[in-house]
Amino acid sequence: MSKRESKGQHQISLLTLAGLAPITLRSLHGVQGRVLQLPNHDLIMFSRCEERTLRDTRLIEDSFMMLGKPLSIRSNKDLVALERLVSEREIMAAIELKKRIFPGRAVKRVTFNTYLKQDKDRKVYRKQIVARINQLVQQRFRRWRLQDPAQLELWGFYIDEKLHLGVRLTDQRVRYNYSKPFLRKGALRPSVAAAMAYLISPSRGELIIDPMCGTGTLLQECMARQPDAHYVGGDNSTEAVQISQQRLDGSATDIFCWQALSLPLGPNSVDGFICNMPFGKQYGALKAIDRLYGGLLEHWLTLLKPQGRMLLMVADDVLFEQVLRGLQCRFESTGKVKLLGTWARFYRIEK
Ligand SMILES: C[S@@+](CC[C@H](N)C(=O)[O-])C[C@H]1O[C@@H](n2cnc3c(N)ncnc32)[C@H](O)[C@@H]1O
């Protein structure tokens, strides 16, 4: 075991949705990382990363232990050098790390496979890279079986003609932040909700409202961040309210069926609003959406305490900013994320 491994530090990368890397890095309190961009994801590379960091973050989709140094692949003949990257010793070290941090069921016979994400189409085809890596793994581990899906996944990130290869440490559970998936149209991915929870950072004792809470993802992530605040949510869909109540069952959260344009709350009573706003494009009502945004913001601003803040996510940012400029408030965009091929922005709004 190398000195670095024995200290619980490894070459790690974290995969987030595109746009979330800067917020993820800030949430990790100054851990230094380099960000590589893929069409729908950001990849944060750490030359040193502690195991604690891997367990702590809820803003990621996946994490990997990287094998060796990135390999330059410009033509098919460079594939020979993959020999160096697919190291038996490092793969075994990654399996040990995975077992320690994200333990799964014990298996009799390991199944494996390789997956590849790339920044754009290149001269060397992704299929060829994958086939070569699988061949090398099979040579090194004769008893393992190539299968899809597999228990052990190698992931290649082919960016700027360089291949970064890693062993996936996480599994599906991390994408749902260890809770049961609650699915409904418009439901937010937990990693995005965790980013918004970080951006609003509820404090102990505060009243935080999600006025259009859908399946309750945002409230759940806020609660994971600060369990000692008072959370209230609601939606005008009874189906959404039922799902939220189920999801947040047992927690000190109140969920109501209500109309977000006339909330049953007093003026200057709310510390924070957090909300994933209905998207005009998504709901097919682009004309009506500016009136809706105007009505909602005006109402919520009256309910907000003078020192309060809103953290809202919107896909129609141009239209949204037009509406904001017509209101008595200060606002700034605090980040963005790509969801289903569309960029959405986070806004912090104050009175
Ligand atoms: C984008 S979704 C929110 C999704 C939620 N963040 C989640 O993770 O499931 C917007 C929600 O606003 C609700 N909604 C739309 N208009 C509303 C209104 N006028 N009053 C209350 N809820 C409303 C919809 O039913 C929908 O659940």
Q: Radius of gyration, rounded? A: 23 Å
Shape descriptor reads elongated
Mean pLDDT: 91
> What series of H and E elements makes up the topology?
HEHEEHEEHHEHEEEHHEHEHEEHHEHEE
Small molecules (ligands, ions, cofactors) in the structure: S-adenosylmethionine
The secondary-structure class comes to alpha/beta
> Helix tally?
13
The number of distinct structural domains comes to: 2
Poorly predicted runs of 5 or more residues: none
Strand count, sense and barrel status of the largest sheet are: 9 strands, mixed
Strand content: 25-35%
- CATH class of the largest domain, please? Alpha Beta
Helix fraction by DSSP (H/I, runs of at least 4): 25-40%
Task: Write up what this structure looks like.
The chain has 351 residues and is an alpha/beta fold. The mean pLDDT is 91. Strands 1, 2, 3, 4, 5, 6, 7, 8 and 9 form a nine-stranded mixed sheet that branches. A seven-stranded mixed sheet has the order 12-11-10-13-14-16-15. The chain has 13 helices and 16 strands. The chain has two domains: 172 residues, VC0802-like, CATH 3.30.2130.30; 161 residues, Rossmann fold, CATH 3.40.50. It binds S-adenosylmethionine (SAM). S-adenosylmethionine binds next to helix 9.
